[in-house]
């Protein structure tokens, strides 16, 4: 990891010995190295010694370059700040850009992050870019240019055409450019390049007619398929385009442009391999609104898995045998009659009866056949209806599948045109974290069950028809990444192309609010970072979302394991070549499920994936295999995306913002919280404290500030006892001080008193010990003092029990209602570093636990603070806390195997990992910041709890009620540094 470095004149130029160009930025020269960049501001002193303006110091994260690169100095990060005014407190504006100097400047293209105050000017950016690209101390001005003309020097950057993820062309300008009068012409329209070699570039169009081409024209397009004079745009109320006899033609959508064709705003116009869109100039003044992405619901009809019943075909008519015996009987009888009577009537009997019977049989057979054919026709109509339903469902299934997972060309178009389907997938959707792995046969959701009865031939007929409808060809094969570990294996180039396609798909379908992308890469795949960095999903994953090598990768996975578990899911690409042990990856994968962390293993062989792998996409065999013999899905067409398209698509997404995004808990919390502001009492506002005492109800205290205002707890409603958990530096002691000071401001000493136990030298409660509410302050415990303190506390319990019995009250609240003059104040026993106290003085802890178990109805409350609840809050020492808080989560306070958790997992997930931030268990869905925490607190100012303590001390003297009596003659401990008072 490289330290802070300044860019100097010794910066490597492309073409140096042993150096091969890795990429070519449009309009620039090869050799640009792409890096993630961060900046740390510093002050530059003027020659007179005074502070004059802010400059910037650069911190690089130097990733190992891919094989085509040679190591060089890190890339610059710039901070544009005004040279004439101090930095305003407004939130700075940040752009991630690729700076492409002109060829005459002999400077390298670089990727930078530009951070500017809202009042920053183009002149500030030009001076800063000149210093960082040309070398320290250089007076070169690198001004942004559009169509060869520099931007006005005094134009505000917030009003300029800067776009996050865009290409910024700069050129050296003379110093008199700074004093030139601003003659900015309002453009008639904007021309955005959405596809092609210059994707991401924006041109301002002036005048009524603009010529496009590759030669000496108004707008030059660096595309070899564009003619030197390709087309002409006519900018009127309705724009129009005219092809100028170009070699490859001009297409408007699917139509070839012949003559003058009207062009709608936002309609895609194709010239060669470049696609452009026209936008009205009014959109240039509101860049923030322009880049907002709305996420409407996904409408349309869904297809549920259903099996339809096909009616059984009619049974074929049974062929009855011809009635030969019945026909022969009249012949025999007639023959006998003819022999006996010689009458010709016998011949009629012999011929008529058999003929009549034959005709009857033939008619019956024909009628049966007609009835069968009629029933068959009706049955076939019913079958056709069923098959039509199956076909319609199959078509809907295909349409939905291709709508949700279209081909890569459509995915890229959605990203570049900010389509309404961009980031449409929500966490509640069934296909969340599902990506298309390729095309292949997929089972039909709606099928039909073949009949079992009826004519065999008809059953075979419908069976053949149904067999062709059980599977749909060339549908997206979904890969679910919801498991802890998924793998993709195959040749390195094939895996890289597939990963580019998968990550781009996920970035287009999922909002960065819902999905963050990180990567652990080996040296051979470090070039993946060159396009991953532009994705907003990667920038939302943290300050160092891409790690190269085993050591950095292990640190990244550990940080992801600790930080994951919030509302945002995280996908981490793990390269086999990074050198991580499979045991470590498997351990992370096993814990990843409940933390919403998902790993995608990039390997070479299917047989060498980690054992915890749930699914494997084997690119060598074109198959998706499910672990534990879950079956294999064939893939007939694999996904693949080239590096240039992935790079340009990621840049298109860089400037988008989710309009419906809810910020992280830490971002929604105020940077600092002051207890006087929460309580409404200043340092000398004694009257206000007295007024709050006179109107106090319950035992309420302001715990901190949450996302929707002050967070308030009540010891009686949310208690009676509590537990505060957090590591060293997380803000436990600050939280305890704030809680005690808030209770003192809101309640008089006649309503609550404090017994403070600090076993780490008395630093935690030194100021709170001066409160009039404090009746005991214990900083050191000897065996004798342990016994004396316990005797005093038991005597207090006995006194309260006698009071309740005397006045017939069931608890202290009932006694306050019936006899307020006789009711003793509630007592809060507050213990810091409970673990150390439990280890060294277990008798005292056991005694206090016994008191807490009996003191619920007597107004005795206990608040424990510890770093590690597991193993400390045992079943014996747990005082049944119903109010819990934690500070600075998710630091490793409790091992995964422990069952002792101070707060629910749901609230843990929403809590930022920052000192002073926590979540009370009584408000699971919220986070809060401790009143005394903040990013910057002046050491010269009095701490906020101290100011409340001072006003509370001035409001009233110490309580004059008698000390707790003891049942024995042992006196109560006297007041000193290690006793109660």
Automatic annotation (TrEMBL):
Entry keyword Signal: no
FHA domain residues: 210-257
Top-level division of the source organism's lineage: Bacteria
InterPro entries, alphabetized: FHA_dom (IPR000253), FtsK/SpoIIIE/SftA (IPR050206), FtsK_dom (IPR002543), P-loop_NTPase (IPR027417), SMAD_FHA_dom_sf (IPR008984), YscD_cytoplasmic_dom (IPR032030)
UniProt feature, compositional bias: Basic residues: 41-60, 938-947
Stretches assigned to the FtsK domain: 708-898
Claim: Phosphoprotein is one of the keywords in the record: yes
Keywords: ATP-binding, Nucleotide-binding, Phosphoprotein
Entry's Gene Ontology molecular function annotations: ATP binding; DNA binding
Alphabetical list of Pfam families matching this protein: FtsK_SpoIIIE, Yop-YscD_cpl
Compositionally biased region (Pro residues): 63-76
Region (Disordered): 1-86, 869-981
CDD domains, alphabetized: FHA, TrwB_TraG_TraD_VirD4
Biased amino acid composition, Low complexity: 14-33, 896-937, 966-981
Binding site for ATP: 726-733
Annotated protein name in UniProt: Cell division protein FtsK
Species, as recorded: Serinibacter arcticus
């Amino acid at each position: 990891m490289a330290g802070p470095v300044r860019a100097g004149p010794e910066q490597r130029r492309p073409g140096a010995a042993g150096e091969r160009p890795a990429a070519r930025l449009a309009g620039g020269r090869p050799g640009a190295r792409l890096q993630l960049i961060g900046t740390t501001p510093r002050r530059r002193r003027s020659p007179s010694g005074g502070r004059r303006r802010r400059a910037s110091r650069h911190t690089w994260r130097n990733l190992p370059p891919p094989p085509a690169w040679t190591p060089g100095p890190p890339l610059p990060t710039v901070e544009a700040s005004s040279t004439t005014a101090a930095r305003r407190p407004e939130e700075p504006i940040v752009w991630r850009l690729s700076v492409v100097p002109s060829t005459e400047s002999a400077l390298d293209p670089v990727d930078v992050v530009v951070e500017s105050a809202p009042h920053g000017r183009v002149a500030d950016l030009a001076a800063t870019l000149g210093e960082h690209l040309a070398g320290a101390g250089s007076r070169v001005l690198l001004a942004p240019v559009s169509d060869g003309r520099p931007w006005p020097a005094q134009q505000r950057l917030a009003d300029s055409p800067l776009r996050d993820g865009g290409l910024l062309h700069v050129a050296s300008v003379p110093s008199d450019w700074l004093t030139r009068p601003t003659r900015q012409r309002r453009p008639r329209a904007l021309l955005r390049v959405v596809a092609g070699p210059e994707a991401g570039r924006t041109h301002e169009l002036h005048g009524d007619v603009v010529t496009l081409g590759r030669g000496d024209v108004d707008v030059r397009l660096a595309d070899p398929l564009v003619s030197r004079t390709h087309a002409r745009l006519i900018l009127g109320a309705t724009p129009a385009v005219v092809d100028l006899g170009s070699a490859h033609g001009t297409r408007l959508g699917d139509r070839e442009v012949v003559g003058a064709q009207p062009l709608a705003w936002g309609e895609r116009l194709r010239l060669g391999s470049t696609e452009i869109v026209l936008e009205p100039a009014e959109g240039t003044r509101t860049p923030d609104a322009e880049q907002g992405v709305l996420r409407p619901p996904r409408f349309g009809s869904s297809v549920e898995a259903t099996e339809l019943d096909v009616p059984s075909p009619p049974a074929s008519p049974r062929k009855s045998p011809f009635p030969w015996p019945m026909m022969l009987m009249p012949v025999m009888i007639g023959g006998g009659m003819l022999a006996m009577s010689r009458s010709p009537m016998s011949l009629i009997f012999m011929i008529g009866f058999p003929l009549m019977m034959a005709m009857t049989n033939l008619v019956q057979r024909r009628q049966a056949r007609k009835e069968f054919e009629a029933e068959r026709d009706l049955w076939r109509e019913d079958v056709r209806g069923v098959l039509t339903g199956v076909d319609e469902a199959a078509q809907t299934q295909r349409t939905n599948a291709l709508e949700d997972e279209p081909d890569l060309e459509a995915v890229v178009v959605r990203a570049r045109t900010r389509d309404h389907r961009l980031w449409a997938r929500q966490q509640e959707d069934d296909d969340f974290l599902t990506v298309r792995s390729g095309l292949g046969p997929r089972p039909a959701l709606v099928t039909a069950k073949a009949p079992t009865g009826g004519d065999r031939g008809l059953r075979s007929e419908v069976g053949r028809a149904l067999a062709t409808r059980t599977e749909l060809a060339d549908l997206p094969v979904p890969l679910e990444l919801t498991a802890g570990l998924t793998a993709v294996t195959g040749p390195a180039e094939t895996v890289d192309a597939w990963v580019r396609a998968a990550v781009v798909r996920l970035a287009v379908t999922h909002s960065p609010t819902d999905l963050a992308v990180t990567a652990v890469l080996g040296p051979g795949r470090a070039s993946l970072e060159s396009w991953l960095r532009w994705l907003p999903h990667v920038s939302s994953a943290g300050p160092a979302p891409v790690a190269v090598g085993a050591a950095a990768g292990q640190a990244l996975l550990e940080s992801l394991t600790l930080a994951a578990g919030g509302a945002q899911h995280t996908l981490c690409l793990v390269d086999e070549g990074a050198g991580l042990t499979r045991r470590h990856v498997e351990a992370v994968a096993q814990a990843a499920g409940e933390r919403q962390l998902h790993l995608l293993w990039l390997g070479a062989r299917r047989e060498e994936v980690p054992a915890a792998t749930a699914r494997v996409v084997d690119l060598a065999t074109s198959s998706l295999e499910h672990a534990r013999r879950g079956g294999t899905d064939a893939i007939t067409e694999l996904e693949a995306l080239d590096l240039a398209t992935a790079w340009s698509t990621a840049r298109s997404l860089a400037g988008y913002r989710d309009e419906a995004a809810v910020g992280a808990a830490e971002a929604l919390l105020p940077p600092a919280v002051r207890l006087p502001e929460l309580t409404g009492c200043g340092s000398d506002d004694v009257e206000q404290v007295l007024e709050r005492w006179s109107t106090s109800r319950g035992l309420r205290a302001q715990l901190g500030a949450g996302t929707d205002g002050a967070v308030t707890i009540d010891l009686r409603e949310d208690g009676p006892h509590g537990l505060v958990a957090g590591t060293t530096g997380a803000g436990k002691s600050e939280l305890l001080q704030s809680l005690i000071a808030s209770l003192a401001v809101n309640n008089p000493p006649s309503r609550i008193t404090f017994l403070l136990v600090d076993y780490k030298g008395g630093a935690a409660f030194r100021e709170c010990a001066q409160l009039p509410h404090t009746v005991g302050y214990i900083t050191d415990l000897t065996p004798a003092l342990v016994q004396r303190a316990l005797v005093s506390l038991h005597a207090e319990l006995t006194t309260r029990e006698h009071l309740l019995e005397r006045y017939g009250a069931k608890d202290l609240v009932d006694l306050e209602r019936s006899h307020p003059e006789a009711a003793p104040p509630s007592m809060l026993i507050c213990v810091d570093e409970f673990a150390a106290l439990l280890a060294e003085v277990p008798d005292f802890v056991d005694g206090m636990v016994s008191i807490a178990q009996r003191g619920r109805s007597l107004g005795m409350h206990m608040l424990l603070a510890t770093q590690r609840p597991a193993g400390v809050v045992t079943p014996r020492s747990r005082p049944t806390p119903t109010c819990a808080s934690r500070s600075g989560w998710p630091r490793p306070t409790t091992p995964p195997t422990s069952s002792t958790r101070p707060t629910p997992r749901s609230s843990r997930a929403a809590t930022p990992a920052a000192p002073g931030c926590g979540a009370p268990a009584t408000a699971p869905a919220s986070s809060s910041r401790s009143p005394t925490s903040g990013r910057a607190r002046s050491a010269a100012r009095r701490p906020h709890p101290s100011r409340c303590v001072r006003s509370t001390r001035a409001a009233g003297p110490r309580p004059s009620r008698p000390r707790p009596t003891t049942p024995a003659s042992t006196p109560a401990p006297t007041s000193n540094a290690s006793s109660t008072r």
